[in-house]
Amino acid sequence: MPAVNGSFTSADPNHPLHRLTPEQIEEIGTAFQAIHDEVKADLGERDAHYIRSMIEFHRRLAALSRIVLMASRYPPAWLLGTAGLSVAKILENMEIGHNVLHGQWDWMNDPNIHSSTWDWDTASPSAAWKHSHNYLHHTFTNVVGKDKDVGYEIMRVDPKQEWEPRFLAQPLINILLMLAFEWGVAVHDLDLEAIRNGTKDKAQLRDELKGIAQKARRQIVKDYIAFPALSGRKGFKATLAANFTANVVRNIWSNAIIFCGHFPDQAYTFTEQEAADESRGAWYIRQLLGAANIDGGDTFHLMSGNLSYQVEHHLFPDMPSSRYKEIAPKVKAICEQYRLPYNTGPFSQQWLMVQRTILRLAFPGGSPRPKAPPYIAPIVYETPGPVVSSKHGPIPAFP
Amino acid sequence: MVERAATPRVTALRRRLVSAAQALTTPLMPDDYLGLLNPAWSARELTGTIERIKPETADAATVVVRPSFPWPGHRPGQYLRIGAGVNGIRHWRAYSLTSDPDHPDGLVSITVKHVESGRMSPYFTRRVEPGAMVYLGEVEGEFRLPDPLPVQALFISAGSGVTPIWAMLRELERRDALRDVLHVHCAREPDQVIFGADLRRMNAQYDGYTLLEHLTGTVPRLTPDSLAEICPDWADRDTFMSGPRGLMDVMQEHWNTTGDPDRLNVERFQPIIGRGDAEVGTGGTVHFRVTDAHATCDVGVSVLVGGEQAGALLPFGCRLGICHTCVGRLRSGLVRDLRTGELHGEPGDTIRTCVNAPEGHIEIEL
Question: Which residue stretches of chain A are H helix?
């Protein structure tokens, strides 16, 4: 059992979960559910078109990059092909694979874009990942001791986790995990703790290991043998290096985005006691408090698989990612009404906070970082003077 | 899991090429990339392009489809599960096939009656344009002509129930077997008879085929008594019946009590499933690997019901084995189909949890 930090229980009067009355918590749950239901009822051709186009774009980009890489022995082709392939792999993993496997597109009833049939270009077999991520992580989000994504069982990222000497190695493990993230996730999905305790079903473990081995073999054959071979003898090494680079780029990028989702300072963690017997409203509030967004433009959000809308994603894991941006103002409005924080920050700030935490908590001690204050919508001043219309709406005539 | 179209039959050479090329496309299939060039080239699913829509009556139309791969064939009277995307969502319905099994151009057709409140029939009868893509599912149905062909036959149809009967009559005509066929068709008005012109043409052309249009706009509904008046030797004929449930129930009861039920063939789109009352198989245990639930199913209890009783949240739809919403991938073990009693299941198969029960222990990815 992880240690429970005394300063972080129901005694804390500023903790939103303890400040709100049961009636307010109920209201908040109803308000969030209404956002969910409204979008769900509205899903249709526009959304289907979005994901189909995204999948098609990924396939075209991947195919094109692979073709360019056949000439990888020429540096400009290497650079172009590697960049294209890296982007393609990131899209495939994040905006497509992660979200399809969440069931965000299951409503389309398309057997080829469905959480039950999808497989992605990563080391994790989809069934094991769905259990550890969709079920364990998304249900018990940030409940220390239950959500195995808090430190992934190999790192200490929250002071509530009891310190052990093995955590001294975590600055190094952190870098290795960054570089080999997909392999780390695959091994993590096996549930290391259950294996250590001997509670993991032996037959299932054998199947899952076989699944990882099969995926590993296929990725190695594809990226490190077949495509390099297509580049001819002179291009073999260059294409191999290009594919390796693309895989590492994707690992570093997805690691960075995912670590920024829950480990920045503003995100709350919870004890098992706090999450026990919670109502639907309290579940929503825990999801809201336990996640952190990353500020950015449309391209940034796309490249993060819209996990930069981590708050919205955790509230509504099965909502199509393309809708998160649209509902964000409604989520913020609920935060403002009930004086709840809406965790967000620029990428560099969030990422550096995470790195600082990893370094600090490698050593014993550490205390919870200050949390974000209640969200207040920025004040929009009435534009003085005349305005003219533009395609972005009215803009001041004399700025 | 979710319903998917039939798997096209491809040549052995293509299969070998695809399996070799998969080394380059994994986890996708080479067909996923072929489909970028032309969706009809992908052999992931059997699709079809709508060639034309032929109005049959004011509210029924025949939809003619060109399959993306050679048509695997069907028996007249069988139905096709056909899927189409409506507002971004793929829906499936079953319609009787009304085309000849070996159409010279390789085309297939279904005939659809417009149902104002329906979702799919208005799509096919009112909205769809030639060139649209549809998904062609499995050909199913036990309602078909026996072999050898019947000597004396009685066909009873009502409304759009005539579609499988029409396919059978066409087959008899082709095989020159319209020897002693009586066809009672119920409709409100003469111009509402789907395939009316063709049926009347056959009536005029063949001595062995007699069409009796039972027009309920002017006479009462067909009952066993009125049938006996029209066709006194009904009990001596092999009978094929397709129509609304009310008519079928009354007639079936009549055959069960005063006729030979073995000689009555009835179109059934919906199979009958037991919720524990079908005493077949041994029952067993289920491990749902994604939700990590364990369930015990008594004899005749489906994987779905057992899982729900164990508290697992599982996908479901029609609960009749039709819609495929509930399917999951079988990891290990055997299941018994509660409709047929058949034992089946290979690792990797997708099974419909609503109509299959575990036989011993099974592992399923749900």
Answer: 16-19, 22-42, 45-68, 75-91, 99-101, 126-129, 138-139, 170-179, 181-189, 192-197, 202-221, 227-230, 232-262, 272-275, 280-290, 298-303, 310-315, 324-337, 347-360
Please judge whether B88 and A207 are an interchain contact, meaning their C-beta atoms are less than 8 angstroms apart.
no
B44 token code pair: 């992931």
What the block records as the tokens of A365 is 């001690």
Q: What is the pLDDT of residue A134?
A: 86
Cβ-defined contact of A111 to B331 (cutoff 8 Å) = no
Helices A22-42, A324-337: crossing angle, 10 deg rounding = 160
Cβ separation B89–A48 shorter than 8 A: yes
Other beta carbons within 10 angstroms of residue B176's beta carbon come to: 9
Report pLDDT digits (tens) over A355-378: 999 999 999 999 888 888 899 888
A199 touches chain B (CB under 8 A): no
Residue type for position A146: K
Whether residue B332 contacts residue B349, with contact meaning beta carbons closer than 8 Å, is answered with no
Asked if pLDDT for residue A4 goes beyond 80, the answer is no
The 8-class DSSP code of residue B128 comes to -
User: What gap in Å lies between CA B247 and CA B266, rounded to an integer?
Assistant: 11
Distance between CA atoms of residues A236 and A230, nearest Å: 8
Torsion sign (Cα): A93, A94, A96, A97: positive
Beta bridge partners of B94: B81
User: Is the model's pLDDT at A8 over the cut of 50?
Assistant: no
The answer to whether the beta carbons of residues B40 and B78 sit under 8 Å apart is no
Chain B touched by A57 (CB under 8 Å): no
**Residue B23: which of A48, A127, A222 has the nearest Cβ?**
A222
Q: Please say if the pLDDT value at position A144 is more than 60.
A: yes
**Residue B361 sits at the chain A interface (C-beta within 8 Å):** no
**Winning range, highest mean pLDDT, from A59-68, A110-119, A387-396:** A59-68
Query: Is residue B356 within 8 Å of residue B335, measured between CB atoms?
Result: yes
Smallest CA-to-CA distance from B155 within B115, B208, B103 is with B208
Q: DSSP secondary structure string, B1-12?
A: ----PPPPP--H
Cis peptide before A76 (omega within 30 of 0): no
DSSP 3-state of B364: strand
Subunit contact B1:A117, Cβ cutoff 8 A: yes
Question: Which residues of chain A make contact with B5, given a CB cutoff of 8 A?
Answer: 111
When CB atoms are compared, the residue of B1, B24, B331 closest to A116 is B1
Do the beta carbons of residue B80 and residue B95 sit within 8 Å?
yes
Beta carbons of B2 and A107 less than 8 Å apart: no
Q: Which residue stretches of chain B have pLDDT < 70?
A: 1, 268-280, 322-323
**Average model confidence (pLDDT) across chain A:** 91
A5: pLDDT strictly greater than 80: no
Q: Which amino acid is at B101?
A: P
Q: Of A47, A111, A207, which has the smallest distance from its Cβ to B2's Cβ?
A: A111
Rg of chain A, C-alpha, whole Å: 23
For the record, the structure tokens of A256 come out as 């960075």
pTM of this structure: 0.84
Contact B77, B121 (CB under 8 A): no
Q: B306 and B358 in contact (C-beta within 8 Å)?
A: yes
Give the separation between CA B239 and CA B260, rounded to whole angstroms. Answer: 10
ipTM of the complex: 0.87
Task: Using the structure block, give the residue that is written with the tokens 């009304």.
Answer: B98
Strand A387-390 and strand A393-396: the pairing is antiparallel
Pick from B1, B32, B292: CB nearest A59: B32
Alpha helices in chain B (DSSP H): 12-25, 30-37, 120-122, 162-174, 196-205, 224-230, 245-258, 303-309
Quick check: helix, strand or coil at residue B238? Answer: strand
According to the model, what pLDDT value does residue A74 have?
A: 97
CA dihedral for A37, A38, A43, A47, sign (positive or negative): negative
